[in-house]
Structure formats: C-alpha cells, structure tokens
Amino acid sequence: MDKFGKTAQYIAYGRYLEHAKGDKALFQDPYAQAFAGDFGKEFMEAIATQVGTTVNILADYVAIRTKAFDNFAVEAVSAGGCRQVVVFGCGGDSRSHRLLEGVRVFNVDLPDVIDFRKTILEPRPQVIEVAADLASPETIWPTALTNGGFDASQPTLWILEGLLMYIPPTDQVRLLQAIETLSAPGSKVVGDVFNNAYMTAESGQPLLTEWSKWAAPPRTDAAIEEPETFFGRFGFDVEVKGYEHDDLNFGLISEEERAWWAEHPRVPGEEMPRNLHFFSR
Ligand SMILES: C[S@@+](CC[C@H](N)C(=O)[O-])C[C@H]1O[C@@H](n2cnc3c(N)ncnc32)[C@H](O)[C@@H]1O
Q1: Which of 1, 2, 4 to mutate to test the pocket of ligand 1 (most atoms within 8 A of CB)?
Q2: Which single residue of 35, 208, 254, 269 could bond 12 by disulfide (Cβ 3.0 to 4.6 Å)?
Q3: Claim: this prediction has a pTM higher than 0.85
Q4: What topology is assigned to 5-280 in CATH?
Q5: Is Methyltransferase set as a keyword in this record (predicted)?
Q6: Could you tell me which of 234, 223, 201, 249 has the C-alpha nearest to residue 60?
C-alpha cells in the first residue's frame, strides 16, 4: 500500500474500534479490521501518543463521520432517489457490502488500493471497483463507470469522504467538473474538507508532523474554506456541519467538547481548525 492508501488503514482501524463495541456500536463494519491490518492500529496509536490524546477519541471522530455519511447515503438511495453511488477515494469503505442495497456502487481509488480491496471484499455483480488516479490530468474513471453500467440519466450519490484534502486544487476542480457533467437532476454530494486553519494552526502541527512519518499528509493547498461556495460552482447546494451539530456527533464527543464547539460555531473565513462535513440539501 502506498503512502495514500495507508491513510485508509488508519480510518479503517477507527471503524473497527466502533464495530468492536458490539451492541453499543453506531454501525457494524465486519470488513474494517482486515482493511486496517496491523498498520492501521500502529498508526493510530502513534498519533494518539504523539499528540497527547487517546485512540478512543481519534476513533470516535472516524465513527462520527462514518455514521453521518451512512445515514445520508441510506436516505439518498431510498427517499432521495439516487439510483447509483460513486465512492471516490474509497480506501477501506465497505458501504457497497455492508449498507447499500438495490443500487449499483462504483468504488474508485488508486490501483494498489483497489488490488487490496479485492483481497478483502467478495465480488458482487452490482459493485464495480475502479482503479484511477484522481490527481492526474487524464480523467479515466468516467469511461470505467460507463463500462460498468453507470447511467448518467439517473441521479447519483457522489461520496467524497476523506479525499479532497489529498488532491491538488486543479485536480479538485477537474474532478468536480466531471462530476457535474455526469450528474442528472437530483444527484447529491457528501463528504468532508479541511479549512486553512486546520492545516496551518500551531496546535495542529504535532499531529501533521507525526502523520507525515506514517502516510501521505493532507495538502495545505487542498484546503477549502467555504464548501457552500466551492460546491455551488458545480451545481450542488450543500449544507455544512461540524461536530457541534448533535445530528453529526451522535453524542460521541464529551459534553465539554460539544459545549466548546457550540460556542464556536463555524463562520466562513473564521480562522479555526475545522473538518467541514458537507451534505447536499
Ligand atoms: C483518508 S483515506 C479515506 C478512505 C475512505 N474514503 C474512508 O473514509 O474510509 C483517503 C483515500 O483517498 C485515496 N486517494 C488519495 N489520493 C488519491 C488519488 N490521487 N486518486 C485516487 N484516490 C486517492 C487514498 O488512496 C485513500 O484510500
């Protein structure tokens, strides 16, 4: 697994820890442990030690994001009317196997990640794995989607979870332009981005320094300050949520932290480190 795919193993370990809560878990992900491997565990433990937090707190953030996007995806393919789902930078995402039924799912990532996925997820007729570099001037994935039965006349849910912070700005724009071209009315986006302060705040540097020893770090130039404006350029009306939103954090963050975030609501342009979650309205 290259330095990008390794980031997916960290996230998979967070999902595994939530899964391991059993009856108390927000979701079950029976594939997460295999995706994480030993590396995902070692990586998350090293980050926790280095930045003076606990693995459980780091894992909770992963669980919150997973559950929020799970809920959105289920709604989008049922009441929302999306007939197909494309998961960009899918890493160890197993929604095609554990969550989504009755729709075609396209999982897109770098070739070695797709190869790794094929050793873990059993093949299914409705699930198409697509190897593509999304940070390349060659946009090969739309053809692969079409060959796999993608229908541009039907609404699509596009998932961009934990991806855009690794993609240079020109490639972000190219990706969104292609998405816009392929989006029938009713299509939706969901995902997350980091703002500038997340990348540059002094308080965040120990984490980023440690992270870069283990895997590809997020790119400073990939920060997106206002997802509303960014996605609006490509025809998507999005709502942005942070951890202060109760329907995002599922009570998993402490009362103190929740209160702190509630007192520091997101203001576009405000210099506070944020992981901004965006959801089509
Ligand atoms: C932090 S992981 C997130 C994985 C998954 N979305 C999740 O939330 O579990 C980032 C993923 O983006 C993928 N990625 C990064 N750069 C990419 C690129 N240029 N083209 C395709 N995938 C890329 C990585 O390989 C990795 O699987």
Answers
A1: 4
A2: 35
A3: yes
A4: Rossmann fold (3.40.50)
A5: yes
A6: 249
